[in-house]
Amino acid sequence: MEAQRLLSGFCSTSPIPNAKTQFFVKYSSPSSSTTSFAQSHKWVSFKARPLSTKLIKCTNTTHTETAEVVVSSDSYSQDSIGGILRKKLAVFVSGGGSNFRSIHEACLNGSILGDVVVLVASKQGCGGADYARDKSLPVIVFPKTKLEPDGISPADLVATLRGLEVDFVLLAGYLKLIPVELIQAYPISILNIHPSLLPAFGGKGNYGMKVHKAVIASGARYSGPTIHFVDEHYDTGRILAQRVVLVLAKDTAEELAARVLREEHALYVEVTKALCEERIIWREDGVPIIRSKENPAEYS
Ligand SMILES: Nc1nc2c(c(=O)[nH]1)N[C@@H](CN(C=O)c1ccc(C(=O)N[C@@H](CCC(=O)O)C(=O)O)cc1)CN2
Ligand SMILES: NCC(=O)N[C@@H]1O[C@H](COP(=O)([O-])[O-])[C@@H](O)[C@H]1O
């Protein structure tokens, strides 16, 4: 229901103007509804300066909620560089969210021509979700599981991202399989970062510290992050970018993980910048490459 309300502008009587208008919404719900949008006071903010506030009442068969909508001018989504519009990003996390934070900060400081408009978390209480709430970003839990009963369905996830006009989905430490519904709804628009040089050390069961332990145990002398497009299987999508990190003879998995993570943060910001500036080109053999901003004749 909340996903639908988010899409329909919270209520049929919503005064919320067109999608180009940004707004804050504060929910106060008498009931302890089972969803992440309707519990007590929650600011769901999409940025921008408030111009006016409006109260809207949302009723359904079980209860009535009031939402205070702060309608504001939309001075962000009209930003553009050379006619290229600012992009709307959804980031997916399961853990601490350091990649999410570095991307969000790069959007705020102008490095990335885009805005994170929603965070999707597989765990309501993970560090990435806490950071998003602290920054007044909307948080959606996906998927719905026994441990996360407030999670939404794949259909509601697609509808909500569409309703938020998301252009690209960035997986950043997200540990669940992305469903085919989302992949079909966002063809070649979903990226993932993996902490090894794919195709090595990828696939089901290869995530987090497990990857770095396997790299060290293998005797590999090099590792590093890979960013790839997401298809219906784990880590088999088209590789877009990599960085090489030395594996030192006496590295612990934690030391290697920290070295790789530093490169992940830089690489994901660099790739997201190229994505939002529409500098990703598809080679005839289907391999995606990135056009240099400084020298358009150069690709990587
Ligand atoms: N359709 C896709 N979904 C996801 C992809 C992808 O490439 N295609 N990438 C992963 C991220 N990832 C590696 O980069 C990855 C994440 C998790 C797993 C894994 O084995 N998960 C376990 C469950 C872990 C848990 O719930 O704590 C499992 O499925 O058994 C492998 C690779 C994100 N989604
Ligand atoms: N296979 C997926 C996987 O292992 N992803 C890895 O999870 C970590 C998330 O860190 P973060 O939450 O601090 O960004 C990152 O190292 C990322 O590469």
Could you please describe the fold and organization of this structure?
It comes from Malus domestica. It is found in: Plastid, Chloroplast. Pfam families: Formyl_trans_N. With 300 residues, the chain is an alpha/beta fold. The chain has a single domain, classed as Rossmann fold, CATH 3.40.50.170. 25% of the residues lie in helices and 26% in strands. The strands form five sheets. A seven-stranded mixed beta sheet has the order 9-8-7-10-11-13-14, covered by helices on one side. It starts with a helix and ends in a 10-residue tail after the last strand. The structure holds the ligand Nc1nc2c(c(=O)[nH]1)N[C@@H](CN(C=O)c1ccc(C(=O)N[C@@H](CCC(=O)O)C(=O)O)cc1)CN2 and glycinamide ribonucleotide. Residues 171, 174-178, 192, 194, 204-207, 230, 232-235, 237 line the site of the ligand Nc1nc2c(c(=O)[nH]1)N[C@@H](CN(C=O)c1ccc(C(=O)N[C@@H](CCC(=O)O)C(=O)O)cc1)CN2.
Shape: globular
Number of domains: 1
Low-confidence stretches: 6-61, 67-78
Largest beta sheet, briefly?
7 strands, mixed
Indicate the mean pLDDT.
Answer: 83
The secondary-structure class comes to alpha/beta
What is the strand content? 25-35%
Number of helices: 7
Strand order across the biggest sheet?
Answer: 9-8-7-10-11-13-14
- Computed Rg: 20 Å
CATH superfamily: Formyl transferase, N-terminal domain
Task: Report how far apart the termini are.
Answer: 44 Å
Distinct small molecules? ligand LMY7XDAE, glycinamide ribonucleotide
Order of helices and strands: HEEEEEEEHEHEHEHEHEEEEHEE
CATH fold type: Rossmann fold
How many extended strands? 17
Enzyme class: transferase
Keywords: Chloroplast, Plastid, Purine biosynthesis, Transferase, Transit peptide
GO molecular function, one term: phosphoribosylglycinamide formyltransferase activity
Protein name: Phosphoribosylglycinamide formyltransferase, chloroplastic
